[in-house]
């Protein structure tokens, strides 16, 4: 029979302690004193065992402990007497400090276990530091992984600056974080440690990859950081990254980064100042509208705004955009309205579009200012025939050139040409106009020519048709195919592909009235078939067949009828024209064009029907003329001969 009095032994000393008997030693911590028995300390604490057994001199009856809390020491003393301790994630770190001092191995291990199983944003940094100090690899590795996964949250922790520099550098080198998180963490570490010397800043700037930083962030945040401003080497490096590579600057400058970059350019002396100035001026001219919509623009002072508007980039930007920017800036600034005239007088009224002039005349800020009204009146009186204020509207058409794969705008009134920005080449292309908005359509993309004369990408169509026959119907673009008819709604910038196609084979043409869409000709039934799409039932129905079969013809809704012009069959082009009267379901021949045409465009502009460009006969000879139909004389006449041939598509562009 074995006898064990271990538990009784603990109970006995616990009883003595509870009754306050036979104390022969005391421990002082902070403002508290704990009476204890030496024999218990020697038996349980490695610290006191070494002190009592190895000390040859007379030992004092009191020991004062530093660097630990009274509460944690009390918990450790309770453990010595009872063999029990309540370790939680809240107190484990604090008790660990006391247990390490007292050399209570079981408590130390228990605290480690609790901390490892309860690593959080509140304690992970402390656990990393403690693990490194105690050389506890497992705990350090686990906590370090947690830091990695929550790096962006931890940089604002009050404990963050106290992690060791080598560990922090290791984090930056191995854990790929976004540039904002990286820089914020570096600044938090430096400022938290109140480090102002340049050496530490340069150490960190050497290891971070500034190529991953956006130009806006570097120019706005990094360059203006006081630690960088006070370090000439760091400031020079940052400026070099922004401005030294002009090709990168040209490619990466954005509306959001423009003002921070411009401010840095004006503040610091640059070796390549003229090159940078050229880049910023050109960027303003091509992105003025987007720049004016940024928060930086809205925060400009009036003086800075005036300087911006009259700068080379601002002065030569689209005048409608400059006018819109003025209104955008001044709205919401009642105190600035009394100085509106200073902005208004920077406008070049001759360069405003007709729409822009209409909006300007209706603007209350203009009408409430006698100075603005006087300037406007003087301009109108001195420019009675100016196209910007004239009641006579120019007649313009947009033309898609097959040879150059470019779009040009031809003014039928003045015979002048203008050139929108170039477009990406595609084997299948088409252009349409919706209320003076020009759209360019290919099988894979849709672009819209904005008021600022730039092509803006819209929702991708993903068309599977070999030819693009597009028509505008009730404010939407319908691309009519044999099997499907996807349509685009510009109000929601979205495509729908739920409609069935017209069922005609390749070579047909399309037109739309106010009530329906029509598809006629093509390879089906010798090119005579014609069909009508009912938007209410969403179905295609046969209508009366055309008189002449046509492949590559063009159609238009004109004078209450569907007109089908030209086309051809087996290499022979036609000049003939026929019209379809809807109410009678009947086709009749009308006056023929002056020359045969196929693969061209029929356009209605200001109640006049035009035939534009195309090809002639099997030789595919390009036609460079525009003719129009005089409905009163029932006669076609050539209006203009254009500067080039190869027009494959055209539309009205008022």
Outline the structure in words.
There is one protein chain. The protein is α+β, with helices and mostly antiparallel strands and 654 residues long. It folds into three domains: 6-118, Potassium Channel Kv1.1, Chain A, CATH 3.30.710; 162-382, no CATH class; 396-652, Kelch-type beta propeller (Neuraminidase, 6 Propeller), CATH 2.120.10.80. The strands form nine sheets. A four-stranded antiparallel sheet has the order 6-5-4-31, with no helix packed on it. Strands 7-8-9-10 form a four-stranded antiparallel sheet, with no helix packed on it. β9 and β10 (455-457) form a beta hairpin.
The CATH superfamily of the largest domain appears as Kelch-type beta propeller
User: What count of structural domains?
Assistant: 3
Main pleated-sheet profile: 4 strands, antiparallel
Q: How much of the polypeptide forms β-strand, as a percent range? A: 15-25%
